[in-house]
Amino acid sequence: MSIAIPNFGEVKYSILAGFAFTMFYATASLFTGLLADSVSRVRMLGICSIVWSLTSIGIGLSTKFWELFMMRFLLGLFESA
Q: 41-59 burial, b for 16+ CB within 10 Å, e for fewer?
């Protein structure tokens, strides 16, 4: 990872692995549960699965730390569904 993103160290990895994913995953799971009760679950899971796959591709294509942070944020958000 440090070859693709300059100055990528343990602190930035811990931000990506901990805060960027876990906090948004835990928070969004509360709201996606409520959302699943009010909209079609099949449609919601279909859309979330597509966006989840796109964010996984975005993680592989990101070259800057902030891009990787946003992709991990979106991955946690859509994976919570």
A: eeeeeeebeebbeebeebb
Could you give the 3-state DSSP secondary structure of residue 63? coil
Domain boundaries defined on the chain: 10-79
DSSP-based three-state secondary structure for 59: helix
Dihedral of CA atoms 65, 69, 75, 81 in degrees, nearest 10, equals 180
Which tens digit of pLDDT belongs to each residue from 27-65? Answer: 888 888 888 889 998 999 999 999 999 999 998 898 888
How far apart are alpha carbons 15 and 3 in whole angstroms? 18
